[in-house]
């Protein structure tokens, strides 16, 4: 789906879509970023079923994403169907094949791509694709009329107690800490974003504004006692 416009070769963007209404919004966000950088844009969807076995709803999304890719001049809409390998292996393979430098993935309660933001899977993904910047796009549910916020590549970080508050730091502290992954909001000079960590096999999310935790009630009591 080449659009005939010469683009920069040093950057290329891959948008990963799986299912649902948010796919179109992710594609449009990727297109906006690709336009700003004047670079190629690719779309990837992965499914364990063969394309011929997609249900009517999934087939409808594929059709709409194909139309949108043509409309926006996307370089290629890549469909990896009947895929039995782990998602991160497929994404890594495509990223290498197409020389991808930035990858956009949606995080939604109704999307399988949400797995990418969870614990060890994220670590595996970052190790699989160390050559690309990974952006997690927080997407509102279809029933909500909210926008999308984009976050930078997740980095290792720590939460420590400071007085009666909790603060994020990026070097391993000598005091007690909670270890997790921090996603900084793009376009901010401060450490604003979200911090995710695993506890009792469950992912927890804290909102960070200018280094400090905005929702300390989300920290498990056991951790609060531990950090004191």
Description:
The strands form two sheets. Strands 3-2-1-4-5-6 form a six-stranded mixed β-sheet, sandwiched between helices. Strands 8-7-9-10-11-12 form a six-stranded antiparallel β-sheet. The radius of gyration is 19 Å and the shape is elongated. By secondary structure, it is of the alpha/beta class. It has helices at residues 22-37, 56-72, 87-97, 119-128, 221-227, and strands at 13-16, 41-46, 76-80, 102-107, 133-138, 149-151, 155-162, 165-169, 178-184, 193-199, 202-209, 212-213. Helix 1 packs parallel to helix 2 (56-72). The protein has five helices and twelve strands. Residues 1-6, 108-114 and 141-148 have low confidence and may be disordered. The chain folds into two domains: 13-151, HUPs (Rossmann fold, 3-Layer(aba) Sandwich), CATH 3.40.50.620; 155-227, no CATH class. It is 27% helix and 29% strand.
Give the secondary structure arrangement, pairings included.
Blueprint: E1 13-16, H1 22-37, E2 41-46, H2 56-72, E3 76-80, H3 87-97, E4 102-107, H4 119-128, E5 133-138, E6 149-151, E7 155-162, E8 165-169, E9 178-184, E10 193-199, E11 202-209, E12 212-213, H5 221-227
Parallel strand pairs: 1-2, 1-4, 2-3, 4-5
Antiparallel strand pairs: 5-6, 7-8, 7-9, 9-10, 10-11, 11-12
């Amino acid at each position: 789906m080449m659009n005939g416009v010469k683009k920069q070769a040093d950057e290329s963007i891959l948008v990963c879509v799986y299912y649902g209404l948010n796919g179109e919004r992710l594609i449009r966000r990727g297109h906006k970023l690709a336009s700003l950088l004047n670079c190629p844009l690719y779309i990837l969807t992965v499914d364990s079923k063969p394309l011929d076995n997609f249900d009517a709803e999934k087939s409808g999304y594929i059709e709409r994403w194909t139309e949108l890719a043509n409309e926006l001049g996307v370089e290629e809409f890549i469909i990896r169907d009947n895929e039995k390998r782990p998602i991160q292996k497929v994404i890594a393979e495509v990223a290498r094949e197409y020389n991808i430098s930035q990858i956009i993935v949606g995080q939604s309660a109704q999307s399988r791509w949400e797995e990418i933001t969870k614990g060890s899977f994220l670590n595996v993904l970052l190790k699989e694709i160390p050559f690309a910047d990974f952006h997690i796009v927080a997407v509102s549910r279809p029933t909500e009329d909210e926008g999308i916020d984009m976050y930078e590549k997740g980095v290792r970080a720590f939460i420590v107690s400071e007085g009666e508050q909790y603060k994020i730091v990026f070097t391993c502290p000598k005091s007690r800490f909670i270890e997790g992954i921090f996603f900084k909001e793009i376009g901010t000079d401060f450490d604003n974003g979200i911090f995710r960590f695993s506890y009792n096999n469950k992912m927890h999310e804290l909102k960070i504004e200018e280094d400090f935790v905005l929702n300390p009630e989300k920290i498990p009591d056991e951790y609060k006692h531990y950090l004191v």
